Structures are given as C-alpha cells and as structure tokens.
Amino acid sequence: MSSGVLAVDLAYWQVTILRVLGLLAAVLLPAGTIVYVFLFKMMSFMQSRLGPMEAGPYGSMQLLAEVGKWLQKEDLFPDGADRKVFAWAPIVVVVSTFIMYAVVPFGPDAWFADLPTGIFFALAVSSVSVIGILMAGWASANKYSLMGGLRATGQLIAYELPLVLAVLGVVIQAGTMNMQGIVEAQRNGEIFGFGGIGNPFILTQFVGFALFMIAMQAELTQPPFDMPVAESELVAGYLTEYSGLRFLLFFIGEFATAGAFSAIAAVLFLGGWALPGISFDSNLMNVLGPLVMLGKMMLVVFLVMWFRFTYPRFREDQLQIFAWKFLIPISLVNIAVTAVLKVAF
Amino acid sequence: MTAVSERQQLAYIASQAADMRVNVELETEGMTLNIGPQHPATHGTLRIIVKLDGEQVVAADPVPGYMHRGYEKLSEVRTYPQVTTLINRIDWLGSFANEVPFILAAERLMEVEAPPRAQWIRTILFELSRIANVALFLGDMAVQLGAVTPVFYAFRDREYVLNLIESATGGRFHPNFDRIGGLKDDLPKGWIAETNQVMQKVQAFCDELDALLLGNEIFNVRTRGIGVVPAEVAQSYGLSGANLRASGVDWDHRRDTPCGLVYDKLDWKVWTHPDGDSYARYWVRLQEVREAAKMVVQLCDGLPPGPIMAKVPRIIKVPAGEAWAVTENPLGEMGYYIVSKGDLVPDRVKIRSASFNNISIVPWLLRGVYVPDVISILASLYFILGDIDR
Q1: The model's pTM
Q2: What is d(CA B334, CA B384) in angstroms, rounded to the nearest whole number?
Q3: Which of A97, A326, B38, B303 is most buried (most C-beta within 10 Å)?
Q4: Are A216 and A261 in contact (CB under 8 A)?
C-alpha cells in the first residue's frame, strides 16, 4: 500500500511492515475464500450434498479446523528422501505465489510494487513454482511422486507458452506492460468509438481470454489438467509423501496461486479495480478497488472451479497435443489479428 | 510371402541394425511400479506390478489373493442355509445376485421349484442388485478418469435402490433373503408403488450421466479406442457379462440359459457394442441399467399372487448328487458347482465368479498403454475385489 492512502507520512520500515501485512492479507484472504466458498461449498452443492456444516455457522470455521489439524500433524520425512530439498520445496512454491501478487494493482494507489513491466514479471515468477514442484517430486524418493513431478514440469512448461501469448494480445492493445497502465487503458478505452463503459479487454480480446483461462487451468493443475496430482493414478503425485505443515504450504500455494492468476486475469481482461462507466475520486477507489478486484477474482475462480468439478482429465500426451497443436497456433493467430487491427484502427 | 530382392533384404537388415544401435544408445532403464495392493484405483486390494518404460507399460502382472477368504472351503462346514450368508460377501455391491445361483443349484439337487411369486420377486431383487452394483460403476469410472462429481450422483441414486432392497429384505448390503424353495418373506406393503417411482429416478440418473459423460469430449478421447478387446480375444480369455457384450459377442445367460428366473416372460433387449473399447464397456453397462429398470417395472406390473415358499423340510438335507447353476450377475457369469453326499453340508462347492476371469485379460490388455490408461482400462473392466478373491 502506498503511504498516500493513509494521508500520513510514514517511515520506510513502517511502510514495509504495512506492505508485508497487506501482501499476507492479499494472498491468504482470497485463498481462504476460494477454499471455503468454492472447494467446500460450491463443490458440495454441485454434487448434491451440503459440505461442512458443523464447524461454525454453515461450516464457515471449517478452514480453521483444517489448518489446526495440519499444524498438529507430524512432519514426516520419507526414509530415502533428500531431506533439504524435500523441506524447501513447498516454500519455493509458496514464495513464487507471494511474489506474483506484488505487482497486482488493487486501486489507483493501492499497489505493492509498480513495475514498468509488471505483467512480464508476474508471468516470469509464476514459473518458479515449477522448480518447487520438481524438487518435491524428486526429493520424495517415491515413484509416484517422481512421475507427478515430471508430469507437472512438462505440463507447466508447455502451457506457459499459450499463457504468455494470450497476454501478448492484451499488451499489444494496451500498449504497455505495466499492470496499472493496462487497467487505465481499459478504463479510458473505446470500442470502435464507443467509450461509455471503457474497453474491458474481455470484449475485444475474447479469444485471448479463452486461451488465458485454459492455460491458467493447466498452470494451476486443476482438472481437466490435473495429471500431476491425479489421485486415481498417482495417488497424489508430488504431494504423496508430504504431511502436516508442508502439505499445508502446498495447499495454500495451490489456492493462493489460483487467486493470483485470477487477479491477473481480472486485471488483464475484466478491467481490474475499475468499475465500467463509473468513476469515483481516487481516494474512494483505493478503498473500493480491492473489493471490486475481489469480486472479479471470484468470478474468474468460479469459472476455474466449475470446469474443475465437471470435466474428467486428459491424458499426458493428449494434454501436450492440445497445447502445441491447438492453443499455440490459435494464440499466434490472435496476436497477428490483434496487431493488424491495432495498426488499422 | 512377397518376393523381395536380395538388395531390399540387405537394406532392411541394415536399417534394423541401425535402429538397434540407436535403441541401445538411448535405452533407459525401465521402472517397476507397484500399483496396489493399497492404491486408490484398485478399490480393494488388487496388486498390479507394471514394468514401465517412461509412462508406457511394458508388462503388467495382476497379483490377486490379498483378500482371499476361503469361501469354497468354509462352505464345506456350513449347512446350506448358512452358506448364503457367506456368499453374500463375494460381490458385495450386488449381494442378492450372489445367492441366487447357489440356491438354484441346491434346488436342482433337491428337485424342488420355487413358486411363481417367489421366482418373480427373486428376479426383481436380482435386477435391483444389478442396478445397485452397476450404478456405482457408472460413477466410479468417471472418478478414475478424474471427474469427481458423477460418483456422488451415483451414490445418491443408488441409495434409493438400497432402501428398496433394505425394506424388502432387511439388509442393505447383505440381504441373506433367498431360501431353498422360495424366499424368506413377501414384499412389504406399498413396496411396488415406491419401486416404480425409484425406477423413474434411475432412468433420470442414466440420462444425467449420459449427458454428463458420454457427450463429453474429454471422456471420449480418454475412452474411445483405449483398451480394445476383440471378440475372439474376449472369448478366449473367458470374459463374461458386459465386458464380453461390449466386444460385440451377443451372449447373456438371462436370455440364453433357462434358469429359475422369469426373464423369458419380459420384454427386454441384450445390448452389445461392436467396438470393444472402454467407451463400449461403459455404454453397454449404462444401457443395462436402463434395461434393468425397465424390467423391474414390468416385473412389478405382472407380479403373480400366491405363496412364496414351496414345501421343503425344516432341516434341509440335500440328496447326493452334483449340480451346476449359472446366472448372469451384474459383473458377468456367476456359477456354483455343488457336490453333495446327502449331508447337511455340501461336500464341495466350486464358485465361478466373473471378475476373476475378467481380470485374467489384464496382462494382455495393458501391454503398451500409458499409465493413465492403465487406470481407466482397469476401471472399465469393472471388478469387485471380493469377486476376484472370494
């Protein structure tokens, strides 16, 4: 958060502490909301059951109970495990998620870091989690984990490409890589001369949005792209040997990454913290912005989870074919068309 | 043999040798993966040792026996009515269907026949247990492919059928209801009307899964052309039930073998599918659940009045002799061969259960497939561990 929000001058260390607390809140609150609202409740309603009902009203405290359960479980290391790598793997995964959030703007002045190449930075650090997953798969000394780790690596690298290429269309249209700039471009944009609602890029970049959503589903290893953790084949893939706190870290990582990617999708395609057609002064927007962002993020996560609960999973080779033979050519065509239209209009 | 010139032959040999060299250079050590006995996909304790090259299966070897309970031997120290308690637990999802062939074999030895009403109710319960069993497969197959939702639908609608079985027999999973010469009890009041309603729900459940899975592109690419069993291979491995019919072999004991059930009085159809792949096995089972629901409605309509028990002595002694009875159980052909020496207990019981033969094809079928397909093929073969190990 920039100091402008509070309208007082703070020392550097105070700002830093505020930023760290803000980042923690920005990572953990959406992750918790996603787990409770979607994983516990929406999934249950789709499957004609109630989900957790006992802990708190409508089971809303269930998450605390789960976290408590994991915290008190024994921190197990398998016999043949590479202990250091095994211990660090979940931390690598979680850290990459935290850094991704750093460049996401939540309001006109509500940001953690305003990098000129923000979106590039976010996509770059998102790939760091691959290393963590490969570390987990290798260090577990388990054949299922190893296969899961290798599958995850192949999958994440393959889907990085359509993800980046889908973003390129937006970057071309906005003319900037700065996330704040992309939001501004959508707020002040026009669609063929009509500027009443700005230009949320989902309207002009709908192909890019579809590509981004598919690639994002794969990056999050959610079904139908969940071969790395396929519980019916690989038991739990690279998660098989983890327990207690370290499993919890992976779990937070999974859903916090879902939150981070949906925040990026919200910024790129849904107009970020801005509301279409409505402009408040920037101080009010600094307070409203995070809420608007949260709403848009949840909209994106809803789509992700909807697919997750409906589809069976691909096979590993089919997944690669899907990425290389369909998504990447389509995204290249999308970039070409966007570039031509950008020059033409 | 086509005529080949010497030169062509030499070129062929040279290319083969080149391939060999490349293979030796690039060859990586295979991995032996032990799927089971504790593994989420084997729903029980089947162990399959697969040798992998990357993710491709080089060889697969099923190791059954982790749940062997010795029912054939245990039957030899139990009286005939007591045996039904044991054999309930062979295919635990469709328990009532296990009792029927044993009772039929015993009735054949004693030369008694159940009265018509008992035969009709037997057929109703037989088909209900088929629905209870196969409905779970329809959901479970989806879980093995990674879709979590259908299995909850399966459990939800299976519950209605289990309630019916429970209200008629007193047991949800292990009814122990069939008796030599008839049944333990008549149907409770209002049961017929409720059954008709539940059968509508079952039909709706089938339509739901049809729309949810069979129309799904991912389900199609994961199952079509995967695990193809040609008809002659299926027959040579002794497959039975839906696995055989999915390979295009029109063979169903309900229609082909006259037994003590009343299938000949019903209007129904044996479904087959020409493809023999996982999709075909799923499709055939889905049709069978629909067909079973139709049959139950017809059976309820035409249920004849009368007694439910023939005249049998209070203490059952089966005359000396040998008898074989076989029925088309939910998992396939199930038969009992009883050898009696005129005692209270059978001298020898041989149980032929479908799953044991059905998984005998696993080494042949899994060669060359990918690991994810190992799971989907095993799921589509549909075995119950109790039915393999007995």
Answers
A1: 0.82
A2: 13
A3: A97
A4: yes
Cα–Cα dist A86/A78, whole Å: 9
- In this prediction, residue A195 has a pLDDT band, given cuts at 50, 70 and 90, of low
ipTM: 0.76
CB contact under 8 A, B145 and A48: no
**C-beta separation of A38 from A301 below 8 A:** yes
Tokens of residue B199, six digits: 């059968």
pLDDT number for residue A1: 44
- Examine the pLDDT at A182 and tell me if it is beyond 80: yes
Between chain A and chain B, the number of residue pairs with CB atoms below 8 A apart is 78
Nearest CA-CA partner of A164 in A196, A117, A197, A221: A117
* Residue A197 burial (C-beta neighbours within 10 Å; 0-12, 13-18, 19+): middle
The helix (run of H) or strand (run of E) holding residue B329 is: strand B321-329
Confidence of residue A342 (pLDDT cuts 50, 70, 90): confident
Say whether pLDDT at B1 is over 70: no
The CB density around residue B171, as the number of other CB atoms within 10 Å, is 15
Report residue B369: phi and psi, to 5°: -90, 170
Amino acid at B293: A
Distances in Å between the Cα of B348 and the Cα atoms of A92, B77, B102, B324 are 63, 10, 12, 12
Cβ-defined contact of A313 to B221 (cutoff 8 Å): no
Q: State the average pLDDT for chain A.
A: 83
Q: How far apart are CA B334 and CA B327, in angstroms?
A: 6
Looking up tokens 């991704």 gives A100
The three-state secondary structure class of A134 is helix
Element (H, E) at A223: none
Kindly list the residues from chain A whose CB atom is less than 8 angstroms away from the CB atom of residue B146.
223-224, 226, 230, 232, 311-313
CB contacts, 8 Å: B152 with chain A: 47-49
Distance CA A16, CA A39 (A): 33
pLDDT at B28 over 70: no
Q: How many angstroms separate the Cα of B313 from the Cα of each of A21, B112, B180, B181, B186? A: 83, 11, 10, 10, 20
| Alpha-carbon gap, residue B55 to A320, rounded angstroms | 14
**Cβ within 8 Å of B, A 276-305:** none
Beta B332-340 vs B182-183: how paired, if at all? unpaired
CATH 1.10.645.10 fits B78-355, yes or no: yes
